[in-house]
Specification:
The chain is mainly α and about 110 residues long. The protein has 2 helices and 2 strands.
Length: about 110
């Protein structure tokens, strides 16, 4: 979430990229392996590319410069889905504010 390190990764996209990479968002960055870092990089690129192609993520009032709603909301695997089944394993997704005080949604089964 620190924009000085990687710009453009907000709460929604961080949740989605970490889920895709299978990384628990509570893990310290220094404890992520090189393979996990590579997977996370790929997931970030994929999430941001998809989001840009779909004009962002609209929940309520967000509109792009053309006035269109963002379609990435239809692709969200975890963000905003606490309590729902994980799309990968079927376990219930967990929502917490304990990580950086922002809503974080994760699958405790898939994300290690």
């Amino acid at each position: 979430m620190d924009q000085r390190i990687v710009a453009g990764i907000g709460n929604i996209y961080a949740n989605e990229a970490l889920w895709r990479a299978g990384i628990d968002p509570s893990r310290e960055g220094g404890r992520i392996s090189a393979d996990e870092a590579s997977a996370l990089r790929g997931a970030i690129v994929d999430v941001l590319s998809e989001s840009i192609a779909l004009r962002g993520t609209s929940f309520r009032d967000y509109r792009d410069a053309s006035g269109a709603r963002g379609g990435f909301v239809e692709r969200l695997a975890v963000y905003g889905r606490a309590g729902d089944p994980c799309l990968r394993c079927g376990h219930a997704l967990i929502g917490t504010h304990a990580i950086d005080g922002r809503m974080t949604v994760l699958c405790a089964h898939c994300q290690r």
